[in-house]
Amino acid sequence: MSGPIGVLVMAHGTPRSTAEIAPFYTRIRRGRPPTPEQLADLERRYDAIGGLSPLTERTAAQVDGLRAALEARSPGRFTVVYGAKHTEPLIEEAAAALVDAGADAAIGLVLTPHGSSLGSGEYLSRAETALAPTLRLIPVPPWFAHADLVALLADRVTGALAALGPTIDPARYPVIFTAHSLPERAAAESDSYPEQLAESAGLVAAAAGLPRWQVAWQSAGRTPEPWLGPDIREVARQLARAGDSDGFVVCPIGFVADHLEVLYDLDIELAAVANDVGLTYSRTASLNDDARFIGVLADVVADAAER
User: Fold this and answer.
1) What is the pLDDT of residue 2?
2) pLDDT category of residue 189 using cuts at 50, 70 and 90
3) Which string of b and e fits 271-300 if b means at least 16 CB within 10 Å?
4) Apex CA 119: angle with CA 86 and CA 142, to 5°?
5) Under 8 Å between Cβ of 122 and 85
6) Which of 84, 183, 241, 283 is least crowded, fewest Cβ atoms below 10 Å from its Cβ?
7) SS3 283
8) CA dihedral of residues 17, 18, 22, 26 (deg, nearest 10)
């Protein structure tokens, strides 16, 4: 190889200004503009977390951290670019940048540890199409079982439990691992996404020595079709009805950064449900650009490069 190895990092993207909210929502809806009521609801949720999501800055810090980590390991070997699914720069624009940079191959890294046809699969398919026939895409497979990621998440969980107080009974504070829900039809047709989530939650629970834990889903789309459950809000209500919990800790294991699904769906919407049913709500800190997490990303990219 004469050129660098390209690394195409992909993530969801989020509006960078209030003017971008409507076009962003339209793109998510595959070109169908939202109704005024739908747009107002999304704007209300952004307002509740400060006006906009911090995901743009969080993702940029992750990409910059990965670029620096790879450069430190192998100077000059990698060229790292970023493309988003729904905002500029789009995946296709980032792919074109790798071609222009003279990369010999392209590694595709989606910033989600689990793989699904409607999630990482769509990102990788778009990248492969954009790169063909000039560059071959080497996809990074699901990386939820990486030992350092499991250890990092276990530390996050034990830290969240410890922050509740030194005298709590962990058996009365179950840990609930969550990820973004998908339509049931997608999981039924071809997806191992639910099994991946269960496996990764089990790995973290074992590493943290948890006496009680379970899996739940969050942030289901507002469509008539059924989505994967149980929904985390209903799980909170069930815990209250059972009477064997004083609170619960949520580990959003399917997400790697602070954004609307964490800061609103969990910290505002779920927290309000917990308060209504008399349970203490707590959440593990997001990974964001934690140095240990950046090391995991560098590992999985290096592994792909060896292939």
Assistant:
1) 73
2) low
3) bebbeebebbbbbbebbbbbeebbbbbbbb
4) 125
5) yes
6) 241
7) strand
8) 30
Distances (CA, A) of 145 to 58, 201, 221, 235: 23, 10, 27, 25
Tens-place pLDDT, residues 141-160:
999 999 999 999 999 999 99
Q: Which two tokens stand for residue 277?
A: 């049913």
Domain 147-283, CATH:
3.40.50.1400
- For residue 211, count other CB atoms closer than 10 A to its CB: 13
Facing residues of 179 across strands? 217
pTM for the model stands at 0.96
- Residue 6 — φ and ψ, nearest 5°? -80, 145
Domain ranges in the chain are 5-141+289-306, 147-283
What is 5-141+289-306's CATH topology?
A: Rossmann fold (3.40.50)
Question: What is the three-class DSSP state of 193?
Answer: helix
- CA triplet 186, 138, 179: central angle to 5 degrees? 35
d(CA 163, CA 266): 18
DSSP 175: E
Q: ∠ CA 52-54-57 to the nearest 5 degrees?
A: 130
- What six digits make up the tokens of 115? 């793989």
Classified as helix, coil or strand, 196 is: helix
Closest C-alpha to 284, from 227, 204, 211:
204
